[in-house]
């Protein structure tokens, strides 16, 4: 009888452990791990055509250099309703990204940014691909690329949560156009005068589109390439 009781007790212990393991599986949280380093492939595919945006479509339409970061906090690269820093003007004037490099090097030192990259843009219906690497605790992605030619219009994504890609897969986002508020130009070839306005979405001429059209300019796809443990 004592032997039978022992067997029943062990069975209960095993069943209890099994039940706990099942509960743990159900509660698994998918997120980037702080002790891991992740590399993502990012593709920007242009969707800007004369058919989708027939008003004043420029013959040399395309996208300028891409600037991308990974960060912990929201709105490190840009924020709707806030003014862009004046040092961004050189990027919109001649695609000079050196000020971005200087600024985000400082932000990495201040522990606000992990990954930073600058890569070439693409034609209006072309594509641009690049990699960006981040430590797991910097789990947000942001990027911009200038609409070219233009005064200070850009497309971008902001504060994209990367946690869902911790174990693989990809995520795709559709972009429209933002106005950086740094120049007053209202046409592709007209820069206008310097201004100090807030960043806002832009839907006016010459970027307006026909009734029933879709104001999309590019598709951004983020895909996990690899991950590795950070050595102490």
Structure notes:
InterPro entries: Spondin_N (IPR009465), Spondin_N_sf (IPR038678). This is Spondin N. The chain has 232 residues and is α+β, with helices and mostly antiparallel strands. It has a single domain, classed as F-spondin domain (Immunoglobulin-like). 19% of the residues lie in helices and 34% in strands. The chain is built from three helices and eleven strands. Strands 2, 3, 4, 6, 7, 9 and 10 form a seven-stranded antiparallel sheet that branches.
Break the fold down into its secondary structure elements and pairings:
Elements: H1 2-26, E1 36-46, E2 62-71, H2 89-94, H3 98-109, E3 113-119, E4 122-123, E5 127-135, E6 140-148, E7 153-161, E8 170-175, E9 178-179, E10 200-201, E11 218-229
Antiparallel strand pairs: 1-5, 1-11, 2-3, 2-4, 2-6, 6-7, 7-9, 8-11, 9-10
Protein name: Spondin N
Domain Spondin: 28-213
Signal peptide: 1-21
In short:
The chain has 232 residues and is an alpha+beta fold.
Overall shape: it is globular
CATH topology (level 3) name: Immunoglobulin-like
Number of E-state strands: 11
The percentage of residues in β strands lies in: 25-35%
* C-alpha-based Rg, rounded: 24 Å
Number of domain units: 1
The N- to C-terminal Cα distance equals 54 Å
Mind summarizing the main beta sheet? Answer: 7 strands, antiparallel
- What is the average of the pLDDT values? 86
Order of helices and strands: HEEHHEEEEEEEEE
Number of helices: 3
In the predicted model, the low-confidence regions spanning at least 5 consecutive residues are 1-22
